[in-house]
What we know:
Blueprint (H helix, E strand, L loop, with lengths): L27 H14 L4 E3 L9 E5 L9 E13 L2 E5 L9 E5 L2 E7 L5 E7 H14 L10 H18 L9
Amino acid sequence: MELLDIYVYGSPLLKRKTRKVGQLPDNFPQFLERMYATMYDDNGIGLSANQVGVDLRFFIVDFSLHDKNMGKEVFINPEILQREGVDVLEEGCLSVPGIREKVTREWKIKVRYENIQREVIEKEFEGYLARVIQHEIDHLNGILFIDKISPLKRSFIESNLKKIAVKGKTQTEPFSI
Ligand SMILES: [Zn+2]
């Protein structure tokens, strides 16, 4: 399967809020398979649409990489309804390769989203899973995890970010499904 191009830091598409998903295109299931293949290839646990250049509000996860009892899931038009508690943990991102930083997030969240059958789901997540979902919803709102660290820490990684942005700045065209 042909892998998708991962849009990295510096691409304007990662800084824009994505569009709400209306009717899904016919080839959506096939496109999801390509997204999963791309995510696994890079050892990711989650991947948002705009990380592969698609201006739509959805992301994929495979929680089985963290918890064997869970699996693949698509979150369409997700919104966080409630947030609770605090948790600090190191994060990375396929769009910011080679950089890991501690990020403060809520411990527990309640999310409303549509699944692949377009059923509206309301569900609570906590700990690591809540973190992944917050990270991906941030993507859909044009926010990267490095936007949430202190200016001092950010200054330490600025030269690495500039190197990543050399590629990112060329990724200006959206990818259409
Ligand atoms: Zn990310």
